[in-house]
Amino acid sequence: MTDTSEAPRRRTTLKDVAIRSGVTVSTVSKVVNNRPDVGAEVRRRVLETIDLMEFRPNPVARGLRTQRSDTIAIVTDDLEGIFTTAMMRGVEDAASIAGMGVLLCNSYGEPEREAQQLRRLLDRQIDALIFMSGNRVGPRPDPALPIPGDVPVAYLYEYGSPDIPAILPDDEGGARLAVEHLAACGASSIAFLNGPREWEATGDRLRGYEVGLTHLGRSLDPGLIATSPSWTPEDGYHAMSQLLEQRPNLDAVFCGSDDLAVGALALLRDRGIDVPTEVQVVGFDDRSLAVHQRPPLTTVALPLHEMGVRAGELVLNPRHAVTEAPALDRVPCTLIERQSTRNQTS
Amino acid sequence: MTDTSEAPRRRTTLKDVAIRSGVTVSTVSKVVNNRPDVGAEVRRRVLETIDLMEFRPNPVARGLRTQRSDTIAIVTDDLEGIFTTAMMRGVEDAASIAGMGVLLCNSYGEPEREAQQLRRLLDRQIDALIFMSGNRVGPRPDPALPIPGDVPVAYLYEYGSPDIPAILPDDEGGARLAVEHLAACGASSIAFLNGPREWEATGDRLRGYEVGLTHLGRSLDPGLIATSPSWTPEDGYHAMSQLLEQRPNLDAVFCGSDDLAVGALALLRDRGIDVPTEVQVVGFDDRSLAVHQRPPLTTVALPLHEMGVRAGELVLNPRHAVTEAPALDRVPCTLIERQSTRNQTS
DNA sequence: TTGAAAGCGATACCAC
DNA sequence: GTGGTATCGCTTTCAA
Description:
homodimer; 12 strands; about 40% helix; disordered N terminus; DNA-binding; Lambda_DNA-bd_dom_sf (chains A, B); transcription (chains A, B); transcription cis-regulatory region binding (chains A, B); DNA-binding (chains A, B); transcription regulation (chains A, B)
């Protein structure tokens, strides 16, 4: 095998830099960690040598000494969850500000794997831990391994023991947002095409729908609520047709997910009902498909990135937790206006 | 905040064990790494102390000394890819046999991120590297950072410079499998409902379809081939209807993906055409939805797990690469027989 | 402000 | 077989 890559020549160390710049390792170390007690001229010289020699401190050695790793780990049960990436980016953004890296681990939802992963992570001196659900908010059992008290922990998109702070989306508030938007756009009969009951978020969204209507001084009509047995567009399609059967005069429908909304849109199209002039539609989740619908779907966006950021900040500044201790942090959703609802200002 | 977890008491070290068992650290180290040069009695005693004290060697310290991390990293461009998890499990299985752990990193498909991640990984003394595509086989640029020659590298579900071995599914062979199965099940007019041309795998599958038919001594009929503009069931539905229009007498259809097959099944159902008595259907990928179709879908399974295993073994035994140097390893697909095709033996 | 030296927790070479 | 000890690369008192 002809070797195409660089020779594996020994990496330059603190000592190399020290010798080259005519000081001792102590001094170089101070410069690297930019401590104040270093003369300006010396610092300049050392810094110069550092990037001349392309020195990067060995994190393993540093870790041995400091017992830290500048790394925070995310343990998830579902890599493929459609929300993992967005949340992870949030965590990474928060982490990188603090000069930390993020590690992702998959427990496959198996406690045994989780324990194994945690053991590994803890052995590698992880500095903080975030347990994240990939696609579904809900309760979870305690970590498969007791976490040492000096490792901050948070739940993200899931929750459990009140000892561990959790970051969740404000599904209820999001649903209210949708209802209020529809009302503001002139809808008088707003239906709710809900997702499967077993999903915790659907309960929250239903509550938001009800609270929203009530708050608007409107009455609740059970005939305006349909529950789809699944999240698929197909079932959304059927549920929408039911809804129309029960309440032919409805002029708006709030869907519990974008997928359901896709189904609803399809049915409305098949029936020759125009969106948004005859019926307005709002989805939930702001999946990428929302923008590609005809018309582009107005939807409630989950604050995934922001949730990740908060989780990251939370574990990086555990002092917050001590003082404020917000066991449950509900992050507000935002409404993304597109063309499946009428413009509020027109 | 009342602390519910264990006190963070200092972890037990090699030295602790040594003292407790009345030997020196050298000896304990030997036992831990089960070196032969240790007396049976001493070994027993030390081992006993080890699990009495719940000693686990500190991988950071060990890493500093050995320059290794017992960890192999996977860098993927797509965490949410529907195939990531299965391949990752394969890698993990191969790794765990060698006592290695696996780290997953997301480059988000951005070279800059990839470079950043690689820098981090290399700094942390990763022992091997696998670049993995989450959902689509295709060529990729060289690693965003030159990889030191002593770190074995492999591509998984993607490929690039011939210096780096690649593990890919044998899409062509898989397609042949499907065609041959359909023929064996008595199909005389086998259509191919292909996916979008831009996807490399569809080309391979088309070739397999053609080679398969040719090999069976059948002629190729362009009218039996449809190309769906996307992978969605909707487009599969339409393509299937086209196919029937062009060749009303077809009695089998091989679909380029399970999703397309779902669409095809839907159309056949709508048309009142029975599967498998009138038309037999085979999918590709063996997604979980295949088994839930009516009838359950016969499909060609991608050897994802096996591919992961091979990638893992490859980077763990780079000597193989030196001698055999299989730049491209095509792993055979397997046929999963279900009820959308007629039983071969009946 | 700078430097000397003691670790962090393990491995490995070399005596005994 | 077992033990002493230098070493991996860096951080961190503590003196100078």
